[in-house]
Amino acid sequence: MNSRQPDVLVLGGGAVGLACALYLLQAGRSVTVIDRGKVGAATSHGNCGTITPSHAMPLAAPGVLADALRWMLKKDAPLRIAPRLDFALLGWLVQFARRCSADECRRITAIKAPLLLRARSELEALVQSERLACEFATLGTMNVYRDARAFDKSHAAVALVAQFGISAQTLDGDACRAREPALNGSIVGGYFNANDAQLRPESYCAELARAVVARGGEIHEDTAIGGFRVGGGRVEAVATDHGEFAARDIVFALGSWSPQLARQLDLRIPIQPGKGYSITYTRPQTCPRIPVVLKERAVCVTGWESGFRLGSTMEFAGFDATLNRTRLDALKRGAAEYLIEPEGPSMLEEWYGWRPMTYDDLPILGPATALRNLVLATGHGMLGITMSAISGRLICESITGAPPSLDPAPFLPSRFNL
Ligand SMILES: Cc1cc2nc3c(=O)[nH]c(=O)nc-3n(C[C@H](O)[C@H](O)[C@H](O)COP(=O)(O)OP(=O)(O)OC[C@H]3O[C@@H](n4cnc5c(N)ncnc54)[C@H](O)[C@@H]3O)c2cc1C
After folding, report:
1. pTM score, two decimals?
2. Which of 213, 268, 300, 325 lies at a C-alpha separation of 20 to 30 Å from 227?
3. What are the helix (H) ranges across 148-248?
4. Nearest residue CA, atom 18 of ligand 1?
């Protein structure tokens, strides 16, 4: 047993776990973070770093399933379900399919929109108050189209999100290029999302970790959690390859790996890994000033002073750890269709990560019902960087008993009987 027992043990040092740790430290709790690798090195590392209330519509939307089925055998499709016999994935997909109706899409958008708006302001406040040097910028984002029919079809989704307070400016092709000169002549239209923002996720995580340590938090890297000791309706200890850790409260922030470890606690967390890729370059000369989503190809392009990244694609294929060349090439091909200069002079990193996807596209935040001292902070899907600070705040409020900043009910683990 590690001798000094903190108030709170945070399991998992991604953006979500680190943000939880930081808010708890701000509230005067002593905190230890445990990660089996380096903090911030998993899914929180090579993502696109966009902060996007504009993405309030869930992945489960009318038509998505038909697209996914059509693309099943297409290895470079933006959304792909790999044909395989995996009962957990099949069960998840059935639940996902049940949510692909217009009514359900609207219901989830109504929940996500206020969460994301609050997430956006909370993140900016955290970056400023903790002076996190992470290239945070509030220049908005754009979604652009090359296909006039796809652009026309997109208006309904934009109108839906606008009903919940997240409006976008509709632009024709020339207006898109005027706003973002890195786009080429093929763009027919798009949207400008003024309230969106961006940051460099690797720097954000490094800075969160710095702030955690500066406030007296302990971080144990290269420490793999293997199991739990449970007694009296609570987690008494967490077993790792560096001995046991214990605390009054335990925050479970293990991203895509949450279901594996939660099974040992008899919790069936409905998360599937949604694999995405990115390629990072040094900055091209004609680098986008603001993040742009190249809609038909579902590729996100983010430029920072420190570099340039093409990212995205979503693949449900379990924990397949191959760096798939076809899917990486699809990012480059997509970028070449829309951008004057689609790649930077030097390629720095090819990467993949597993988004922790819930089928209702909402995070799982709050106390587990059967274990008194266990709080879940997982299932952030495609928006874990965006939602990191608000998740940290809500988890801190749940543990300290402070009044919640936002109605936590839609995010509670109890919706999945956890
Ligand atoms: C291609 C791509 C692009 C994306 N773009 C964006 C974007 O633009 N904006 C946005 O908001 N989000 C984006 N996301 C989503 C975002 O990256 C995730 O939602 C977020 O990183 C999840 O954070 P997390 O802390 O929950 O998980 P992670 O960062 O994965 O952290 C979980 C941690 O748990 C640790 N762990 C796991 N098992 C164990 C164990 N047994 N013992 C100890 N530690 C363990 C891991 O090492 C890891 O550090 C993107 C994702 C991808 C893949």
Report:
1. 0.97
2. 213
3. 148-162, 173-179, 201-214
4. 384
